[in-house]
Amino acid sequence: MKLRGMKRVRTIAVKALAVFLLAWCGLGQSALAAWPDRPLRVIVPFAPGGGSDFIARFIGRSLGDALHQSVIIENHPGAGGLLGVELGVRAPADGYTLTLIASSYCVNASLYPLKFDPVADITPVIQLSQGPMLVVVNPAFSARSVRELIDLARARPGQINFATAGQGSIIHLATELFQSTAGILMNHVPYKGTGPALTDTISGQTQVFFSSTAVAMPHVQAGSLRAIAVTGNARLAALPAVPTVAESGLPGYDVIFWHGLIGPRGMPAGAVSAINEAVNAALRLPHSAEQLKSDGVEPAGGTPGRFATKIASDIALWRDVTKKARVKVE
Q: Which of 9, 118, 168, 295 fits as disulfide partner to 109, beta carbons 3.0 to 4.6 Å?
């Protein structure tokens, strides 16, 4: 990322942290005298049964145990996750409503006319999980490494097909960032979801796919896909021979999936602190890593300020990518 881009990231991050600190300092202690005295709710802006829903229910159980209150999971899918997020952002800032967001939250900020400010109108609480994607190719494809893929794409511009889960998906933008960083051009083939994109990569209709680890791993282990790189900054324990994209010749490339909890702007600082502390404690338990591993991610944790910086920096990153690649959604 160029110097001007980095300055923009820092500026947005500082603003996000300032919003958080203002909410923290403005707490009236009486507002939390009896908190929590009724059930909390976590809005999940995706359908039941998926990875986001799994993480929300897993964390909800731990949070409920720590706070001695029920935590109700409400699924409000629609509009690429925006429907549920808008509902959560507009909820009363009393510490009883949280919203689970994914890394796509930061992508949507660049693609859709939002009805809220994705930095100023929220209270970041905690990042829950993190996990890289796997760069996988059809086994018959001649490129067996990132370097070979780049060389082949330069020799055959626009002729290598890469699949995505849809126009403007984080998988799409992660691949666009890869192309931009490598200085190559492949042909985008968008699908309506991960399933058909994966199926056509296995069959050879497309050659390259940036997949979630949980989805791709069984096919890599079965030999129906070949993993050539990991998009995060560390190799996977399950695939120690597969290098990161950065190790493969593109220093600085680091893209992960993540989930986290936010509240409305002005959420009481005491509630933020209590929830953050409870969830951090839950994420440190040995069984938490095992539970999250089944969804291809690992515990994240950390402070609200750290999560605020992550959100702001990702929004800036994907805004630059969408602008450079001219990505638009209908």
A: 118
pLDDT value at position 6? 47
Distance between CA atoms of 210 and 217, rounded to whole angstroms?
Answer: 12
| Listed residues 230, 246, 268: the one ending a domain | 230
Q: What are the residues whose beta carbons fall under 8 Å from the beta carbon of 213, sequence distance 6 or more?
A: 131, 132, 133, 134, 236, 296, 297
Q: What is the DSSP letter of 237?
A: T
Give the residue from 180, 186, 236, 192 showing the smallest Cα distance to 213: 236
The rounded percent of the chain whose pLDDT value lies above 70 is: 90
Q: Is 247 within 8 Å of 137 (Cβ atoms)?
A: no
Q: What is the pLDDT of residue 27?
A: 44
Instruction: Report the distance separating Cα 94 and Cα 123, nearest Å.
Output: 12
Q: Once rounded to an integer, what is the mean pLDDT over residues 187-211?
A: 96
Q: How many domains does the chain have?
A: 2
98 three-state secondary structure: strand
Q: What is the crossing angle of helices 194-203 and 213-222, to 10°? A: 20
The tokens for 189 are: 């083939």
pTM over 0.90: no
Instruction: Examine the domain organization and report whether 295 and 314 are in the same domain.
Output: yes
How many residues in total does the chain contain?
A: 330
Can you point out the beta strands (E) in the chain? 40-44, 71-75, 97-102, 122-137, 161-164, 187-190, 208-212, 226-230, 256-264, 298-299
Is position 247 within any domain?
Answer: no
Domain of residue 148 covers 133-230
Say how far apart CA 84 and CA 72 lie, in whole Å: 14
Angle at 52 between CA 271 and CA 270, to 5 degrees: 5
CA 59 to chain centroid: 16
Could you give the C-alpha distances from 163 to 137, 175, 191, 224, in angstroms and in order? 10, 9, 7, 16
pLDDT of residue 79: 86
CATH of the domain at 126: 3.40.190.150
pLDDT at 272 over 70: yes
